[in-house]
């Protein structure tokens, strides 16, 4: 709400500007709809095109909506259009097609029938960015109605942070012992030292050691350890 | 910069909320059917022999080209709704079709192969009377348009106006028809009712008046309905009072009065009270019409007559006959006549127009639908066969707007149900269980459990399981059997007998009520029409209300729907009770409604047959209950003190609340008057009865709860100012408690006007209006909260609410016009809500309610981020991915119906307007079923991979252990 109030203030300030620009545009020799006028009714003209598509392939499904369904026009076989019988005012002209996207344009018609086209801006409603009149509307491509499915690829899988976290330590575990000669007694000593440094309390039983002991005991005890391990594997699934 | 941040925030939040269609889902669970409406003009393209085009103009302002072989649309153009887009006339010559639109406002020429406009010209003001193609020397070059006071001639190839002339004495003479026989002259015929006929003769080249004469015709009131031009410029009129035909030569100067021919001399008589109709034909606009014509003397009596040398001779008498029409192919003109054959079928025969002789082997049998209406229009497409005989196809339109295209000897080529172009109201009903499913359900019935002991129940259980197994095996067998058959021979016909509820209750029965009074039962999965029923004697502008009294849940009681049909002006109504699954009229006796019905009320009270009780309140505030058995009346007496209802009188700006008394009379409790001088009530809406709200409140960023104000009796009343000036107009909204009449909240939107579309649900109201100052549409949302504590958390009572709710409101700019608005609905209300917005472009936008949240902060804080609130942005985004109907646009969408399915994530949506579109939406994505793209191969390959890896590693470990033991 606050935002809108602020906008209102802006609007008042811009109103003056708008009036000014209106005067300027009055001075310009704009296309006068005198010959086309029918009483106080005017005609909005223009041409629409879709790059790379023949007009007859899309015009039968398209139509021109002026201010919603207030006034409706149809496209001619050459892509041009005219919406007749429009009184003076300000309108949003939009070409509606189920396959192609067109940007709307605002058309202002003065009571004398002078026309001007500008970009639609719903927030700064008085901002004027002139567009050519008669309208030249080019499609900005086909509509993108559909979302892309997430497809599964190896790269996505590998670049997943979880996978990275799993794979990198594995590589280190597998590769490091091969790089370092463990048979070298000096090296071994050094490693033991470093391990001790890491382990602040040597009295504490090592968890991993404890676990391996426990499991190896279990498997050696029961002859049918195979079955047990198998059931574990099954359960994990 | 701030803008960018906001945009970014929105787009990030969208990643999680967007529900969109994937390309592979196209047509999987959605379908669209396109309609055109009631055909007013239909012309077959006779330009070339192989042409399949059928041009139609309808009362829905549609101009379309149909494929006459299949009934599909080649293209369709929908003009503005209302009289401004109304198609007054359709003329066709060669590849061009000329259309007069909007009471003679515009003249358009269409290129019929492409479906594009050739030219369009604005005509002078004045109400349209007639239009005709004008030919000169065997070439059709012009089109003439007759207005009330002027006539203009336009070039057929460019549309440019050749000349326009004012008609003489146009204030006293009613000019009604034009005629041109291709001899360089154009006749304008006018009439002064009950006095004389005026004939003005124009020269085609420059519009000069060549001749003008008036002829006495005291008996004539209208030219259009009783006259036709036949032969080389002979005006023929019929009058039922004097029982005679009148002829007048248009060109000859000497004939100054009409020649009277008594029908008696021809042994004919017009049926009393029937207005006789003359039908003539002019196959080529550049040549004079034929001298043969049809005269209809009674609803089922036509006669083919010939005018020759000033005399009229009957060629053939068709009695009985319903419809007759001329058709021309090449040089030969034929007449097709539809006559009744027996009670259920009609036969159509072909006769040569010039002799009245019947063509052999040309009978087409037309079977009438017993649940449909009578045929009322006949369109004939005649063509020359290879052996130079005339073949034909016919299109029959019936009262219930069914278009049937028939071929010899009576094969229905296609059928269109054009009544569906004007759906008024609809409901979705669950399909019934199959016998086996019902058996299972019955097992848990209360009665059974009490009567039987433990052992019989076990046996019953086993037997029903066995039945299920049997059914499953039969299903498997059928699948296997179908798979062996070639694709084409497997019929995918959906019939009512094989329909049953599916596992997730996604397939339902759509009940559609159309303006013409035809009811349809449509399968929501495939769009197949399962039953249709035409209700005769429905007034043209009736109001319908469809009520589901008993669902399919009460086996063995059949489901029951009630349709209240109300006349728009008098308010007198009648009830039609039917079974929604089979479309059969129920035998239940219906209460007579002698007084106008003001309001209906469906109570949660049920009678002993599980039908909900419907209360009808008439204009003397008396209540009629339906069904009104003793049981129901007893229940009503017990609960009367807690039954309240409201009435709206928008003409007096009065809202009033009533309470039911024990004797089924009513007492006025409250009254709210909204002065009509300032504003008028536009719409009143309560909440939907089948809506569930899952969470009582919203968890805030600081872990406290903001409780929703969930008043089931709340009414949202929308008003519009009577002053329509741009600066002073406003839109008002009142939230009124329907039991106490207390105004809970009121808000006014200044410098705004309607049309207002709104949705009232849960604890919020969303409404759209036109901001006349900034010339844009704006959304406004009102949300009501009780606060941090609930007043009475166990039960809600309107009578005991000491605290007024907190109301939050926010408004947004919506960058498109709106046709209709609805909210999604799910079974338990856990899924987040979306708003479905019908746009004039025909797209249906699924807008997350998240964007319409008055708590959207201007400045992002830690707490608002915790709550997942999107920062406030004035403009509402519209993304193409949110269009749930992708390129399947729904022309002039008028309503959207939403229904919950058995899956919490899924909401069924039907959008209707000129077209009907059915789909499913998943506002929070499909969280309760596996996704469509669930990768079964990946998951199973990973599983198998792991399995084999364990096997191999186990083996390896064993070997290693063995080796170690040996060491």
TrEMBL record, chain A:
It is a single-pass membrane protein. GO terms for molecular function: carbohydrate binding. Its main location: membrane. The keyword Magnesium does not apply. Residues 1-23 form the signal peptide. Residues 54-165 form the ER membrane protein complex subunit 7 beta-sandwich domain. The chain crosses the membrane at residues 157-180. Residues 215-237 are annotated as: Disordered. Keywords: Membrane, Signal, Transmembrane, Transmembrane helix. One of its GO terms (cellular component) is EMC complex. It is found in: Membrane. Belongs to the EMC7 family. Component of the ER membrane protein complex (EMC). This is Endoplasmic reticulum membrane protein complex subunit 7. It comes from Sinocyclocheilus rhinocerous. The gene is LOC107756596.
């Amino acid at each position: 709400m606050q935002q809108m109030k602020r906008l209102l203030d802006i609007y008042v300030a811009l109103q003056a500007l708008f009036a000014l620009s209106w005067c300027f545009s009055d001075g310009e020799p704009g296309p006068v709809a005198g010959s086309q006028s029918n009483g106080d009714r005017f005609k909005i003209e223009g041409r629409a095109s879709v790059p790379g598509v023949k007009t007859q392939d899309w015009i039968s499904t398209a139509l021109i909506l002026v201010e919603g369904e207030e006034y409706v026009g149809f496209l001619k076989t050459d892509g041009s259009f005219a919406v007749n019988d429009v009184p003076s005012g300000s309108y949003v002209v939009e070409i509606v097609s189920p396959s192609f996207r067109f940007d709307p344009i605002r058309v202002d018609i003065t009571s004398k029938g002078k026309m001007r086209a500008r970009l639609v801006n719903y927030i700064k409603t008085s901002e004027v960015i002139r567009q050519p009149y008669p309208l030249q509307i080019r499609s900005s491509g086909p509509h993108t109605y559909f979302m892309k499915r997430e497809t599964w690829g190896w790269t996505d899988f590998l670049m997943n942070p979880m996978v990275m976290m799993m794979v990198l330590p594995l590589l280190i575990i597998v590769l490091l012992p091969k790089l370092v000669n463990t048979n070298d007694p000096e090296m071994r000593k050094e490693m033991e030292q470093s391990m001790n440094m890491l382990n602040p309390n040597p009295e504490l039983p090592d968890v991993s050691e404890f676990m391996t002991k426990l499991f190896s005991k279990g498997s050696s005890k029961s002859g049918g350890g195979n079955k047990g391990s198998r059931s574990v594997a099954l359960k994990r699934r | 910069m701030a803008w960018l941040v906001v945009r970014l925030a929105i787009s990030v939040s969208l990643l999680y909320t967007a529900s969109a269609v994937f390309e592979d889902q196209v047509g999987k669970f959605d379908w669209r059917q396109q309609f055109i409406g009631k055909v007013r003009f239909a012309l077959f393209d006779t330009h070339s022999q192989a042409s399949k085009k059928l041009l139609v103009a309808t009362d829905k302002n549609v101009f379309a080209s149909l494929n006459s072989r299949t009934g599909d649309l080649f293209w369709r153009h929908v003009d503005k709704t209302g009289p401004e887009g109304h198609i007054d006339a359709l003329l066709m010559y060669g590849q061009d079709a000329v259309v007069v639109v909007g009471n003679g406002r515009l003249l358009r020429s269409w290129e019929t192969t492409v479906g594009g406009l050739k030219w369009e010209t604005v005509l002078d003001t004045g109400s349209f009377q007639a239009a005709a193609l004008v030919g000169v020397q065997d070439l059709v070059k012009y089109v003439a348009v007759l207005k009330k006071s002027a006539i203009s001639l336009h070039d057929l190839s460019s549309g440019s106006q050749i000349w326009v002339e004012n008609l003489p004495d146009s204030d006293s003479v009613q000019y009604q028809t034009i005629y041109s026989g291709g001899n360089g002259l154009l006749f304008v015929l006018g009439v002064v009712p009950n006095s004389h006929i005026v004939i003005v003769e124009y020269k085609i080249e420059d519009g000069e008046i060549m001749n003008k004469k008036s002829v006495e015709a005291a008996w004539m009131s209208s030219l259009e309905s009783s006259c036709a031009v036949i032969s080389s410029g002979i005006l023929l009129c019929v009058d039922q009072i004097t029982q005679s035909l009148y002829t007048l030569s248009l060109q000859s100067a000497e004939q100054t009065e009409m020649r009277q021919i008594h029908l008696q001399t021809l042994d004919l008589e017009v049926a009393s009270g029937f207005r006789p109709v003359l039908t003539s034909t002019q196959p080529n606009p550049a040549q004079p019409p034929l001298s043969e014509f049809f005269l209809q003397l009674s609803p089922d009596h036509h006669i083919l007559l010939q005018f020759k040398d000033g005399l009229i001779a009957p060629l053939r008498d068709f009695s009985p006959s319903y419809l007759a029409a001329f058709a021309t192919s090449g040089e030969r003109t034929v007449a097709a006549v539809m006559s009744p054959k027996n009670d259920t079928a009609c036969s159509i025969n072909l006769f040569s127009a010039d002799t009245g002789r019947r063509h052999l082997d040309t009978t087409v049998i037309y079977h009438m639908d017993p649940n449909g209406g009578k045929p009322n229009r006949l369109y004939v497409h005649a063509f020359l066969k290879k052996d130079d005989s005339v073949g034909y196809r016919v299109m029959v339109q019936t009262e219930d707007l069914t278009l049937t295209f028939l071929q010899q000897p009576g094969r229905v080529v296609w059928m269109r149900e054009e009544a569906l172009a004007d759906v008024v109201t609809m409901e979705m009903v669950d399909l019934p269980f199959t016998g086996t499913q019902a058996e299972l359900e019955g097992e848990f019935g209360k009665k059974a459990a009490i009567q039987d002991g433990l052992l019989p129940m076990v046996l019953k259980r086993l037997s029903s399981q066995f039945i299920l197994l049997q059914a499953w095996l039969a299903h498997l067998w059928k699948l296997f059997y179908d798979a062996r058959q070639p694709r084409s021979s497997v019929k995918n016909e959906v019939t009512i007998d094989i329909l049953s509820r599916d596992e997730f209750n996604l397939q339902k029965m759509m009940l559609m009520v159309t303006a013409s009074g035809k009811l349809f039962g449509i399968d929501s999965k495939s769009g197949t029409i399962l039953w249709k029923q035409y209700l005769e004697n429905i007034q043209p502008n009736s109001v319908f209300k469809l009520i589901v009294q008993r669902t399919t849940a009460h086996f063995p009681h059949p489901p029951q729907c009630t349709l209240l049909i109300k006349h728009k002006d008098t308010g007198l109504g009648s009830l039609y009770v039917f079974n929604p699954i089979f479309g059969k009229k129920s035998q239940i006796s219906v209460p007579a409604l002698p007084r106008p019905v003001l309001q209906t009320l469906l109570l949660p009270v049920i009678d002993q047959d599980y039908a909900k009780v419907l209360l009808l309140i008439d204009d003397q505030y008396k209540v009629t209950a339906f069904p009104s058995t003793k049981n129901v009346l007893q229940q009503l007496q017990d609960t009367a003190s807690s039954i309240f209802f409201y009435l709206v009188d928008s003409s007096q700006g009065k809202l009033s609340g009533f309470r039911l008394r024990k004797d089924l009379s009513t007492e006025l409790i409250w009254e709210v008057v909204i002065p009509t001088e300032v504003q008028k009530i536009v719409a009143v809406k309560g909440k939907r009865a089948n809506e569930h709200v899952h969470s009582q409140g919203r968890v805030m960023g600081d872990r406290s709860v903001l409780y929703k104000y969930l008043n089931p009796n709340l009414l949202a009343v929308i008003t519009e100012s009577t002053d329509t000036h741009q600066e002073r107009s406003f839109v008002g909204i009142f939230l009124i408690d329907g039991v106490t009449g207390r105004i809970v909240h009121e808000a006014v939107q200044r410098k705004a006007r309607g049309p207002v579309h709104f949705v009232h649900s849960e604890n919020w109201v969303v409404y759209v209006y036109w901001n006349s100052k900034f010339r844009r549409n704006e959304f406004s949302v009102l949300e009501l909260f009780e606060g941090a504590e609930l007043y009475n958390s166990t039960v809600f009572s309107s009578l005991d609410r000491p605290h007024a709710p907190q109301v939050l409101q926010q408004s947004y700019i919506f960058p498109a016009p709106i046709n209709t608005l609805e909210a999604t609905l799910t079974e338990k209300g856990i899924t987040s809500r979306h708003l479905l917005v019908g746009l004039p472009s025909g797209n249906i936008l699924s807008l997350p309610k998240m964007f319409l949240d008055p708590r959207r902060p201007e400045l992002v804080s830690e707490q608002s981020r915790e709550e997942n609130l999107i920062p406030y942005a004035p403009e509402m985004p519209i993304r193409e991915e949110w269009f749930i109907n992708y390129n399947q646009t729904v022309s002039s969408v008028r309503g959207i119906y939403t229904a919950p399915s058995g899956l919490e994530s899924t909401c069924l949506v039907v959008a209707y307007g000129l077209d009907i579109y059915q789909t499913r939406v998943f506002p929070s994505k499909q969280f309760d079923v596996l996704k469509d793209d669930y990768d079964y191969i990946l998951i199973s390959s990973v599983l198998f991979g792991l399995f084999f890896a364990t096997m191999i590693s186990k083996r390896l470990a064993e070997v290693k252990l063995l080796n170690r033991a040996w060491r």
